[in-house]
Amino acid sequence: MSKTEPVMQDIMRKPAEVLYQEELQALIREDQGKVPTGWQMSPQSVLKFIVGGQAGGRTITPKYIGNARLVEMAIATLVTDRALLLIGEPGTAKSWLSENLSAAIYGNSGLVVQGTAGTTEEQVRYSWNYAMLLAQGPTPEALVKSPIMRAMEAGGIARFEEISRCASEVQDALISILSEKTISVPELGKEVNARKGFSIIATANTRDRGVNEMSTALKRRFNMIVLPAPADLETEVEIVKKRVAEIASSYDLQAAAPSDEALQKVVTIFRELRSGMTLDKKEKVKSPAGVISTAEAISLLTNSMALAASFGGGEMTDEDLAAGLQGAIVKDDDKDRLVWKEYLDNVMKKRGAGWRGLYTACKEMNQ
Ligand SMILES: Nc1ncnc2c1ncn2[C@@H]1O[C@H](COP(=O)(O)OP(=O)(O)OP(=O)(O)O)[C@@H](O)[C@H]1O
Ligand SMILES: [Mg+2]
């Protein structure tokens, strides 16, 4: 293998089908259910892959932690020919669930269109290799297929991230793909028809709504499932704990995992700032302008671990945590600094000895 070709273990972020390859193989091997055409396992096994369980003596780790019913509804949608749209606040695992569903159903989560204001119709349908087009005219070799076209040909799943950020022409291009299940290529006088198993999983962020409201025609072609923020403190702590451990091990961070106490504290702070109320509902607090989602809690803690591993004793200290909290909560805004200061003085300071160390470190950071 040449030096420029990375081996899989050096890949920075492994896709779900690689990361959980052994779990997927066990599920396929032990599958007792009926496998829909084009799928690699039954809907029941897909569910087990997402919410966790056992397959022939092998533990399947939960990927999505939360309401299993929502996951069942998502899978059931993909069994029919309807497309799936996952919506919700930032950091509620929309992309994560979409990646893991594609990995379980189709074995490849990499056919992705990333929606931005600059996404073009060609990125949804097809484009051309212009050098070849000029030299030979339109030929099948010169055709550059979009991830969606490739999923159609293979009977697989294409992912469309942040669909509501796209301009309406681009969204319209999807309507015909979803209702006709074909893309015609008039230049070649042919049509690409979707094979059974083809579907699209799109995600959209509720904070972006209004930028480009999705047309009703497009919405009608999707089953929408709203992914909520974690229901309670325990669930959120569990999610954060699990993901931090996974991410830290993939980065090979030489630091101890955050203590349960540190996890509880970070998640408590996040939930209180997010809801504008202390957990005992006795006191109102102000919310910072930025998003403070579960995903932020996860990256804050992995950052603090990296700090501890690289410049500390390998054990996460209150100072490491305070640095992470400061970065997550105060985003280039003086107002946030004030919000954080008020929270520190009105809430954290009064929480007694167990919080004293963190309070002092945060106070110092927020000067
Ligand atoms: N309920 C949950 N179960 C498991 N992991 C979760 C859950 N909620 C959040 N996470 C974790 O949070 C991280 C961020 O999730 P993800 O990027 O999928 O969010 P998103 O909803 O796509 O956000 P955005 O709208 O910003 O794109 C992932 O590492 C994911 O594992
Ligand atoms: Mg996302």
Automatic annotation (TrEMBL):
InterPro entries: ATPase_dyneun-rel_AAA, CbbQ/NirQ/NorQ/GpvN, P-loop_NTPase. Residues 84-222 form the ATPase dynein-related AAA domain. One of its GO terms (molecular function) is ATP binding. It holds the Pfam family AAA_5. This is AAA domain-containing protein.
